[in-house]
Write a structure and sequence with these properties.
The protein is mainly α. It is built from 26 helices and eight strands. A two-stranded antiparallel sheet has the order 1-2. Strands 3-4 form a two-stranded antiparallel ribbon.
Length: 626
């Protein structure tokens, strides 16, 4: 989607945002205009101060007009960036971020730090320095970024939340630090390894933003927010220098699944939720008023003078703990509690999952635990976003009219719910299948098959990823077994002729060119067939009707659980099975985890009646044996 916007257009957007940010920073040092917007007499301004007093530590304080630079940055710019991350993912923000743009200034001016290296050809060249994957920074960058985020929120509460001069110095220092990092290391090293906003991007994007693109299914090499330049022929090409091995600018979902089980990821997701709660809770613990954050916090314009004032006011009592100590104490406690609770939830959930999957192979158990980890992280991301919105963003929207405020709130709620619903269902198996779609389509196009005719007018390009995966996986085997089946049907053996009608019914169910792979009909699940009275009756020639009944039961069951890919999966697996028990066991690894328990429950009657099976009988590949 947005990754297809040309680099020239994004370059103009970056310049506009950078100039705007520079003006905002300048206003933090000198602002003759916005103070008038907060004057209580200026009732035309949506930002004018209300005449009511603000309750602060038991006292009633009347606010005075203030410069709006800090409020614009903390109350409008940062929340807008966070909502943007959830909606469009990191790929938009990483291409327009003013700080990332300014941090590339050393490279743009030709001042990039380089060191002499020897290529495999023996040639000596100067190349930008890269952060080694095995270096301390390469192994611990998430810990560093989360620590800087924790430190930054402490600094905000103590010094720069409403003090414009202090905030201006803070932002200028951050810009200089970003430029220094990108001077010393090549690529987007600041963004990948140091920037405290990067963990927030990971949390609110997850595998992909709500409207983000799928890099693993892209048809060109310039994916998502990948570094790119425009050459002399006015064509875009990659400018990647390989500053990070699993780069989220290239494919964030690949990076997400590969790093899912790392301990620093757990600290990031579990701890961040507590950090958000603790940050906004402190405004209440500090003032004793729920309205202080939205009304009086911006009026505290000399924060440096309050560092040693009482930091808590609880139950109408001042707690004599300096604010300098109270702030980190509150944030550390809330972060630590959230982290411990997250670990305990994860431990319990994984123990239950292991218990319910103890009969599965090791690969299936690991897949189930991966899905558990993903669901917990996704849930914490969803909770963190909504806590941030309703505790921090929503109270600061008082300058909007009521209808606009409510419309914006509902938009955010619906968007976060949609992101949560879609992300919760993602799995590493689904990502792997989707990654193979383009190569499978190319392979299928080489077959001499009229796919629009077979698929009722739909081309391979119109199929969903799961449909292409199933088709590309089972088609070769189905074509081979189809030939065996037709051979068997042409035989004139007398014993076989009595079974011909039943076998033709089964062959029509298996034959690819006569089945509808993609249409999901109205399905009525028949009851599982009752066990036959005796073994002789069960395996008589007449019992072929029972075989067909069992097949149709499984066919309808998989269609209900898996949709249009269920019946083709059954046909492919049935040709390899020797009996119904073998068939069900072969199907188990292909059933997604959410449907696995239901599949096992509803196939248990079939397993009970197939405990004894004559040797040499082929169950649904029967035609190949006759």
């Amino acid at each position: 989607m947005f990754n297809q916007i040309s680099e020239k257009q994004m370059h103009y957007v970056r310049w506009i945002l950078t100039i705007g940010w520079a003006v905002l920073i300048g206003s933090l040092f000198y602002d003759p205009l916005t103070t008038q917007l907060t004057d209580s007499q200026n009732v035309q301004s949506p930002f004018h101060i209300q005449p009511e007093c603000i309750h602060f530590q038991g006292a009633c304080i009347h606010p005075s007009p203030y410069d709006m630079g800090a409020r614009i940055f903390w109350g409008m710019v940062i929340p807008s960036a966070i909502v943007l991350l959830l909606l469009f993912g990191h790929e938009v923000w990483r291409r327009i971020c003013p700080l990332s743009f300014i941090a590339q200034l050393p490279r743009a001016l030709g001042l990039q730090h380089k060191r002499l290296t020897i290529k495999s050809t023996g040639e000596f060249v100067y190349e930008p320095v890269k952060v080694s994957k095995d270096s301390w920074l390469g192994r611990n960058y998430l810990y560093l970024q989360f620590s800087l985020l924790f430190l930054g929120l402490n600094i905000r509460l103590l010094c720069v939340n409403s003090d414009c001069l202090a905030l201006g110095l803070y932002l200028v220092s951050t810009i200089l630090l970003a430029m220094a990092v990108n001077y010393w290391y090549g690529g987007k090293s600041w963004c990948h390894y140091v920037c405290p906003m990067a963990p927030v991007q990971m949390i609110y994007t997850g595998p992909r933003g709500l409207l983000g693109s799928k890099a693993h299914q892209a048809k060109n090499n310039l994916t998502q927010s990948m570094c790119r330049i425009v050459d002399e022929k006015d064509k875009e090409k990659s400018a990647c220098v390989g500053c990070k091995s699993t780069c989220l600018d290239i494919d964030i979902e690949k990076s997400y699944w590969e790093e899912l089980h790392q301990p620093d990821k757990k600290l990031l997701y579990y701890g961040y939720f507590g950090l958000v709660i603790g940050f906004y809770l402190y405004f209440f613990l500090y003032s004793g008023s729920l309205d202080f954050f939205a009304t009086g916090a911006w009026n505290e314009t000399s924060q440096m003078e309050t560092l040693f004032n009482p930091g808590f006011y609880i139950a109408n009592h001042i707690i004599p703990i300096p604010k300098l100590v109270a702030v980190p104490l509150t944030l550390a406690t809330s972060t630590g509690l959230s982290y411990v609770i997250g670990l305990q939830i994860e431990k319990t959930y994984k123990r239950i999952t292991k218990s319910s999957n103890k009969t599965q192979v090791q690969r299936r158990i690991f897949s189930a635990l991966t899905q558990v980890q993903h669901r917990i992280l996704t849930t914490f991301s969803f909770l963190s976003f909504n806590a941030l919105f309703f505790l921090g963003i929503y109270p600061s929207l008082s300058w909007l009219s009521y209808p606009v405020k409510q419309a914006f709130t509902w938009l955010v709620v619906i968007a976060s719910a949609a992101w949560f619903y879609r992300t919760l269902k993602r799995s590493t198996e689904q990502y792997t299948r989707e990654s193979r779609v383009n190569s499978l389509r190319r392979s299928l196009n080489q077959l001499a098959i009229d796919f629009p005719k077979v698929l009722e007018g739909r081309s391979l390009e119109e199929l969903e990823a799961d449909e292409v995966y199933i088709l590309g996986t089972i088609l070769p085997d189905l074509l081979q077994d189809k030939e065996l089946l037709e051979e068997a049907l042409e035989q004139k053996d007398a014993d076989f002729s009595s079974q011909r009608e039943t076998l033709e019914n089964i062959s029509q169910a298996i034959e690819l060119t006569r089945c509808d792979l993609l249409r999901k009909p109205e399905i009525t699940i028949p009851e599982p067939p009752a066990p036959a009275p005796t073994q002789g009756e069960l395996y008589s020639v007449l019992n072929l009707e029972l075989v067909q009944q069992e097949y149709l039961y499984l066919d309808a069951l998989l269609a209900e659980l898996l949709g249009p890919i269920g019946p083709p999966l059954l046909r492919h697996t049935a040709l390899q099975a020797s009996n119904i028990q073998d068939l069900v066991q072969r199907l188990n690894p292909h059933i997604p985890l959410p449907q696995l328990a239901e599949f096992q429950r509803r196939t248990s009657p079939l397993l009970q009646q197939s405990k004894v099976q004559p040797e040499g009988k082929k169950y649904l590949g029967l035609a190949a044996k006759v």
